[in-house]
Prior knowledge:
This is Energy-coupling factor transporter transmembrane protein EcfT. By secondary structure, the chain is mainly alpha-helical.
Amino acid sequence: xxxxxxxxxxxxxxxxxxxxxxxxxxxxxxxxxxxxxxxxxxxxxxxxxxxxxxxxxxxxxxxxxxxxxxxxxxxxxxxxxxxxxxxxxxxxxxxxxxxxxxxxxxxxxxxxxxxxxxxxxxxxxxxxxxxxxxxxxxxxxxxxxxxxxxxxxxxxxxxxxxxxxxxxxxxxxxxxxxxxxxxxxxxxxxxxxxxxxxxxxxxxxxxxxxxxxxxxxxxxxxxxxxxxxxxxxxxxxxxxxxxxxxxxxxxxxxxxxxxxxxxx
Length: 264
């Protein structure tokens, strides 16, 4: 649990950090959408180059990126095995009447790379954008929908709070686990059923503390006169600069070219 990197922000002063949060949000969304149009490994090369440049410019440690991928290892393995043994094609090997194929192996590796790039791209977004900037960016992006009754401010606030408290909850769970282990609790031994039962001393105080933290947060927001639907003032208003427009337009053109290559 102490290896969780989701929702963490690295407060560096780099070109990626200084970009408008709306630009980073739109580019991340376009990156994820466009990557699903790629149908071969060669098409991944420009995406890998872009990710590598963002990681290098943003000074993001590789260790932090690995932490963001670790929670998905079991999901990747299970879906990879399913693709490996259920895809029809030329036989690769057979285990217990299950036949793996070369086409299944190709599909598995292809899927691994795609998911890892998606996770890394979203991690770059959260590592280089503070929760407050994400909130302001989301609220600005959804602002035009307010005239149709869309709760842009409330949605942005919920996303911001969720991202902010993910690492906090994991840290709290780690502290509770260590305290329970010091009292003799065993979370590792036994079968799956026993280990699930042993998690109760961890989950109960974690939920109680989470509800208490939520109540404290609501009280603090009310004390600061936060009201749903009211326009809030900001210390630093976000504004698009020329560099932001250049980056956004360049990325839109890049994604349009990739989609055109595979779609047309």
